[in-house]
Design goal:
Among the domains are: about 70 residues, no CATH class; about 90 residues, Immunoglobulin-like (Sandwich), CATH 2.60.40. The termini are far apart. A hairpin with a 2-residue loop joins strand 28 and strand 29. About 10% of the residues are buried. Helix content is about 10%, strand content about 35%. Strands 12-13-14-15-16 form a 5-stranded mixed sheet, with no helix packed on it. A 4-stranded mixed sheet has the order 3-4-5-6, with no helix packed on it. Strands 32, 34, 35 and 38 form a 4-stranded antiparallel sheet that branches. It is mainly β.
């Protein structure tokens, strides 16, 4: 009792003299300096014991108690045991960090974070953030600002989320931009009148690149049920307008147009490269399949495999097209034909046939102007047709061909008193050339007894048949005539047919380096390079 009284007196005296209180020390270094009995090996009772409370006072403290400290011993609502201090401005008991319901903790690396995963951070500042430092509800390093609707940076161009409160998204201004109010997306450009637009001015970068390496679904599908064009490609560069590479079993490109008057696909190419470049490296897939009006190609080439069995050996095409009227239509522009050949269609078989050198043994140019001469069909091989024999099997018949451009006609006549005049059909007369250099050739077959006949007075309009030795027979005969085809002028395109005879061809059939081969060599994916090698083996 005496010791306690001495400590109390000492505290009172020290407080009055020095305005400092020391417990366990005679040299306090603060208003209240409490030291342990042994700093190195303290006793269990060395420390400051804060008042304990099983619950917070039912009557709130006042401003005079602002900062008052207690230790909560039990869980009260969401407040768990720990140290709490009275915060008068908010009239609440707030926990000290490290005890009670602490909303923020700091780890060993100095990072500040909410104590539990269910805690949330809410910022009530509603300032509209912009490109000026100090705006927005939350700012990071004086650069990134966040408000209720936006995440932007100092330059006001690098990143927008919910820009202008329209739900927009912008990354580096035009690198990627979404106009949410108009439902439009722009890459490399601001969204314009198109729902999705890509603009690219970098020569080495593709604007759009779609690769599908497996599976049965399409690499890309366009479905259009409106009246506009399903796919519109405009190309004004030296590269291909559209190149499709498909190494899977599905479609490389699928375009469906259910109704309307517009095109399913429209390609406008002003470049030197192909407007559409489609290559299938599988021998079991068509390069392009096209159907109009619900019509599909339904013919296969079959070979007899033994007995009555037949196997379809072909049916897979580079182009597979069907329609109610015209399956395939080809057009070459009629211009500069004096120096440039034009072909509506060019069809050929080429490759190595398992050998070491390339060749094209079969070729046909259809609807063409070559060496300034119009040809219906020009190419290798023979002109033939198919007929059925008595067992209804197909047989090949071959058309006669000549070194000159010739027209033939057949007819019958009758000698009257040993003479007959044959007048040619005026349509034939209009289209043949008969003169000293192009004589009309007539072959007569008598069908009765007479002294024989000869042909004279031949012209483009007719000829005379006269019996020999001034005979007076009245027998019938048949004839065949052959004449050179006359030169023809069709819309200013003049073809010199009359003088054709083993006409030299000033062109040479050679193998060209395919553009798609060049592009495959540029592809970075190893699989594409492997496929290129396989394609060459197939050739």
């Amino acid at each position: 009792m005496k010791k306690i009284l001495q400590i109390t007196i000492a505290l009172i005296v020290s407080s009055n003299v020095f305005a400092q209180v020391g417990i366990g020390t005679t040299s306090p270094q603060a208003s209240l300096d409490i030291q342990s009995s042994n700093q190195a090996t303290p006793s269990p009772t060395d420390g400051l014991l804060i008042p304990k409370a099983d619950q917070f006072p039912t009557t709130n403290p006042t401003a005079l108690q602002h900062g008052m400290l207690v230790y909560l011993t039990t869980t009260v609502g969401s407040d768990t045991p720990g140290f709490y201090y009275w915060n008068n401005p908010t009239t609440t008991w707030l926990p000290l960090a490290g005890g009670g319901t602490t909303y923020w903790d700091r780890n060993a690396s100095g990072y500040l974070f909410p104590e539990t995963t269910t805690d949330r951070v809410e910022i009530f500042n509603n300032t509209d953030a912009n490109g000026t430092a100090g705006t927005g509800g939350l700012e990071i390093a004086n650069a990134l600002r966040i408000d209720r609707n936006e995440i932007i940076t100092n330059t006001n161009t690098e990143l927008f989320l919910q820009n202008d409160n329209n739900g927009d998204l912008s990354i580096d201004n035009t690198t990627f931009r979404v106009d949410a109010s108009a439902n439009r997306v722009g890459i490399g450009t601001l969204p314009g009148t198109n729902k999705f637009e890509i603009r690219n001015s970098t020569s080495g970068d593709r604007s759009l690149y779609v690769v599908k390496s497996g599976g049965t679904a399409e690499a890309a599908r366009i479905y259009n049920s409106g009246s506009g064009t399903g796919l519109y490609v405009y190309n004004n560069s030296s590269a291909n307008g559209t190149s499709l590479y498909n190494y899977g079993s599905g479609r490389g490109l699928y375009i469906y147009k259910g109704s309307g008057s517009g095109e399913g696909a429209y390609i406008n190419n002003y470049a030197n490269g192909p407007g559409l470049n489609v290559r299938s490296n599988s021998i079991n897939a068509n390069g392009i399949s096209a159907s109009s009006g619900g019509f599909y190609c339904d013919l296969g080439w079959a070979t007899q495999t033994g007995g009555t069995s037949w196997g379809i050996t072909s049916g897979v095409k580079g182009l597979n097209a069907a329609s109610d009227h015209t399956g395939v239509e080809g057009r070459a522009n009629w211009s500069n034909t004096s120096t440039t050949d034009k072909m509506g269609g060019l069809f050929y078989v080429s490759g190595t046939n398992g050998g070491g050198s390339w060749s094209s043994p079969a070729l046909a140019a259809v609807g063409s102007i070559i060496d300034n001469t119009v040809y219906k069909i020009l190419g290798f091989g023979i002109v033939s047709t198919l007929v059925r024999d008595t067992e209804d099997k197909e047989r090949v018949m071959v058309a006669p061909e000549a070194p000159e451009a010739l027209f033939q006609d057949y007819g019958i006549g009758q000698l009257v008193n040993g003479k007959a005049h044959i007048t040619l059909d005026p349509i034939l007369t209009k289209n043949i050339s008969v003169d000293e250099n192009h004589p009309l050739k007539v072959f007569v077959q008598l069908e009765g007894n007479c002294q024989g006949v000869y042909v004279t007075n031949k012209s483009a309009s007719g000829f005379d048949v006269i019996e020999l030795n001034n005979g007076q027979s009245n027998v019938a005969f048949s004839y065949q005539l052959v004449a050179n085809r006359a030169d023809e002028n069709r819309g200013g395109q003049i073809s010199k047919y009359a003088d054709m005879r083993f006409k030299p061809l000033s062109k040479k059939i050679v193998q060209k380096q395919l553009e798609e081969e060049k592009q495959l060599e540029e592809e970075p994916e190893p699989k594409l390079k492997i496929k290129k090698q396989e394609a060459r083996k197939e050739q």
